[in-house]
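task queued by scheduler; priority normal; single chain, no ligands, no partner chains; default sampling; output format set to structure tokens
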Amino acid sequence: DKQVEYTASANYDTEYLRLAFKPNSITLDGIEMPANSGSSDFGYMLRSLGEGDYSLIVKRKKSGKVLIKGK
């Protein structure tokens, strides 16, 4: 299993990540974040870049511990 963990310090922020694995769980302070189409200010958007790489955009309403897990 693979994972990325970080602590976001700003409220109402967006992170852009490139991952070498497909996430199957994204949480903020232990609460599962929903997938969204980009119109919401809370959740994430995932897009395949090919060859096992993924673009992930995480939108948050609060600071906290972000944990991204996958295989």
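post-processing summary
- DSSP finds no helices and seven strands in the chain.
- The first strand starts at residue 2 and ends at 8.
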